Amino acid sequence: MTREERIQALKAAAKERILILDGAMGTMIQRYRLDEAGYRGDRFKDHGHDLKGNNDLLVLSQPKIISEIHNAYFEAGADIAETNTFNAQAISQADYGLEDIAYELNVAGAKLARAAADAWTAKTPNNPRFVAGAIGPTNRTASISPDVNNPGFRNVSFGALVEAYATQTRGLIDGGADTILIETVFDTLNAKAAGYAVEQVFDELGVHLPIMISGTITDLSGRNLSGQTPEAFWYSMQHLKPFSIGLNCSFGAAQLRPSVDEMARVADTLVSVYPNAGLPNEMGKYDETPEFMAGLLEEWAKDGLINIVGGCCGTTPDHIRAIAAAVSKYPPRQLPEVEHKLRLSGLEPFVHG
Predict the structure, then answer these.
(1) Which of 132, 135, 193, 196 has the fewest Cβ atoms nearer than 10 Å?
(2) Using one digit for the tens of pLDDT, what is the confidence trace for 206-246?
(3) Residues facing residue 213 across a β-bridge
(4) How far apart are alpha carbons 173 and 301 in whole angstroms?
(5) How far apart, in whole angstroms, are the C-alpha atoms of residue 146 and residue 152?
(6) Where would I find the beta strands (DSSP E) of the chain?
(7) Partners of 273 in the beta sheet?
(8) β-pairing, 349-352 with 342-345?
(9) Collapsing DSSP states into helix, strand and coil, what is residue 309?
C-alpha cells in the first residue's frame, strides 16, 4: 500500500470501529534491563555522555528490541504503533550530546515501526496496521518560568521549539509514518509550536498526513500544566483540523474520565485516550491489571466516548489485548454536530452566541 492508500484505509477503519493504539514503550524497554553498554551499543561505545535512559537512542543501538516491542503490540491487537521517538528532537537529545542525530533517530524510529506494521498487514490484509510518528513535549515549557524568582524567564523560545519539531517531523515522514502524533501535551504553547512546525514541513515536502493531538492532565483540577481545561485546549488546537484529539498519561482511567467526557462533548473530530495503568505506587510500579483497566475503558466505549484507545505508562501487550477485546463489541463514538459559534480559549473556554 502507498502512504495515501494507508491514510484512506485508516480513515475508513475509524468509521467502522474503535481503533486500538499500542501501549507503553518505556515499560517494555525496562523489561530488558539494559545497562549503560546496552544503551550505547557498538556505535556509541565511546560517546562522551552517559546514555542510559535515552530510550529513543535504542532505535539505532538496539533496533531488534524496538522491533520486538512493536511486534508484541501488533500481535496483541494494536492497529496503530507509535514510533519510539518521544524525545527524539534536538532539545531533549542535547542532554545526551546527541542533538545532531535527531533527524536520523526519527527516520530510524519510523522505519522500524513501518517494517513491523507492513509485516502484520501482509499477514492480515483486511486489517492493515498503521504508524503514528510520536512527537513528545520536550523537556522545556514555553509558557512557564523554571525559575520561581523570575516569572518572566523562559529557557526555550517558540522559534527553537519550531526548529526542533520541524527536524523531527521531516525524519518521521521520511521514515514512513502515516500520521503525526503530538502527544503528552502539558504546555499548549509547546503544542502550538509543534503544530506550526508540522504544517510548515507538510507545505515544504508537499505531504499532508493526519495530525493526532493528545494532551495530559497534570492534577485532579482537570487542567494541563499551562492551566487550560480540556475544552479550552481543544479550541486552542482546533485550527490544525486534527484527525483526533484526546488525552493520555495523567492518571488511571477512572480519574481521567471527566476530562474525556468534556472533550468528547465539544470536539467534532475523533477522540483518543490512552491512560496510565493507574498511578505509580511507592516502588514506581503500576498496579492496574489488564482486566481492571479494560473494564474501565469498556464503560467509556459503551457510553460512546471514544474512537481511539490504548495505553500509556505501565501498560503492556497484555493490557492492549484486554482493552481491544473489551471495546470490540461497541461502535465508535459518533461525532457531535457542534453549532457554529465564536469559540475562544484562554485558561477557560469562551463561547459567544
Answers:
(1) 196
(2) 999 999 999 999 888 899 999 999 999 999 999 999 999 99
(3) 182, 245
(4) 31
(5) 10
(6) 19-20, 80-82, 130-135, 179-185, 211-215, 244-249, 270-275, 308-309, 342-345, 349-352
(7) 247, 309
(8) antiparallel
(9) strand
Cα 237 to Cα 29, 103, 152, 261: the distances in Å are: 32, 25, 25, 18
The closest alpha carbon to 144, from 194, 86, 93, 189, belongs to: 189
Q: Round to whole Å and give the CA distance between 129 and 113.
A: 10
Helix (H, G, I), strand (E, B) or coil at 334: coil
Q: Are 130 and 100 in contact (CB under 8 A)?
A: no
Checking DSSP bridges between strand 244-249 and strand 211-215, what pairing results, if any? parallel
The residue behind cell 502539558 is: 186
**Residue that is written with C-alpha cell 471514544 in the block:** 306
Amino acid, res. 307? N
Cell digits of residue 157: 523560545
Beta bridge partners of 343: 351
Joined grid coordinates for residue 125: 490484509
Residues of the chain short of pLDDT 50, as ranges, are none
Neighbours of 68 (CB within 10 A): 13
Spatial distance between the Cα atoms of 227 and 225, rounded to a whole number of angstroms: 5
Residue 219, phi then psi, degrees to nearest 5: -160, 180
Question: 349 pairs with which residues across the strands?
Answer: 345
How far, in Å, CA of 272 to CA of 215, rounded?
10
Looking at residue 353, its pLDDT comes to 82
